[in-house]
Automatic annotation (TrEMBL):
<protein>
    <submittedName>
        <fullName>Cell division protein FtsQ/DivIB</fullName>
    </submittedName>
</protein>
<dbReference type="InterPro" id="IPR034746">
    <property type="entry name" value="POTRA"/>
</dbReference>
<dbReference type="Pfam" id="PF08478">
    <property type="entry name" value="POTRA_1"/>
</dbReference>
<keyword id="KW-0472">Membrane</keyword>
<feature type="region of interest" description="Disordered">
    <location>
        <begin position="1"/>
        <end position="22"/>
    </location>
</feature>
<dbReference type="GO" id="GO:0090529">
    <property type="term" value="P:cell septum assembly"/>
</dbReference>
<feature type="domain" description="POTRA">
    <location>
        <begin position="93"/>
        <end position="166"/>
    </location>
</feature>
<dbReference type="InterPro" id="IPR013685">
    <property type="entry name" value="POTRA_FtsQ_type"/>
</dbReference>
<dbReference type="GO" id="GO:0016020">
    <property type="term" value="C:membrane"/>
</dbReference>
<dbReference type="InterPro" id="IPR005548">
    <property type="entry name" value="Cell_div_FtsQ/DivIB_C"/>
</dbReference>
<keyword id="KW-0812">Transmembrane</keyword>
<keyword id="KW-0997">Cell inner membrane</keyword>
<keyword id="KW-0131">Cell cycle</keyword>
<dbReference type="InterPro" id="IPR026579">
    <property type="entry name" value="FtsQ"/>
</dbReference>
<keyword id="KW-1003">Cell membrane</keyword>
<keyword id="KW-0132">Cell division</keyword>
<feature type="transmembrane region" description="Helical">
    <location>
        <begin position="51"/>
        <end position="70"/>
    </location>
</feature>
Amino acid sequence: MPKVAKKTPAKKAPARKRTTRVQRRKMGFMESIGHKLDQQAPLAAARAIDFGYIALVAVAAGAILIAVFGGKAASLPERLAAVPENSIRSLGLNVMRVTVKGGETLTTRDIMAALRDPRQGSVIGRPLPLLSAAELRGRIEAIGAVEAASVTKLLPDTLHISIIERPVKALYQDEDGVFYVIDQEGVVIRRVDATDHTDLPVVSGTKEPKLAMDFLAELRGFPVLYERAAGVTVIGGRRMDLRFKNGFLAKLPEEGVDAALARLDSLDAGTGSLASNLDYIDLRDPDFAYYKPKADAKKAP
């Protein structure tokens, strides 16, 4: 029998999935506004806070400007004093830093101690615009080592100090034997140990060392004598005894000091030859020179 081919059943196409179409309902006008407000609420709140702070600062700044520049009768310091401290603090205008320029021996502690107010305490944290630069400068210049100072207020929070220290020119020994370094004007800078600054001439015999410093300034006109000088003793508040490093002593007159120094210079004072034979030389008489031989000096043959 002839073979009969079997019919292969046709494959059915897969059924299409039904998709459900969701139709969005259009929002009404009021609903649309409410939706936008909900989305923008956090940002609006942050902006409101920023705006409120800016407004507060602006109001405080305006109050300060009115207090400072309003009116014609009051001076600027008086106007600044009238500004409420809380208004200035709200602006962040408080001293947070103190910078110092110049000065070799002064420490930051010295400067901060001078700036400290007896009633209000440290300058740190005080309102910068209310501080008096002139008053602070006066406190710093009251430090013995300071010759001059300037105070600058740098907004918003910095106080800058520039100082020039007094140059050390001599040692001063007071009546109690205490040593200090002094400047050319005889101003006491600070107390020191007796073994400090041994290269400097020593001033003694007076409560007013300026007289001796004036003499030392004149002595610099004789460089060799100045180099050999160990110190000056003020006698009776009127004249000087000049002591040399080798122990030799020269008694100088009250007047005609320059001529007496010229005589000393011609004698080569301060060298070993005079000191080995004489205790001192007296030049108080402009026409004669008196001297005292040492007791143990060798007699000439």
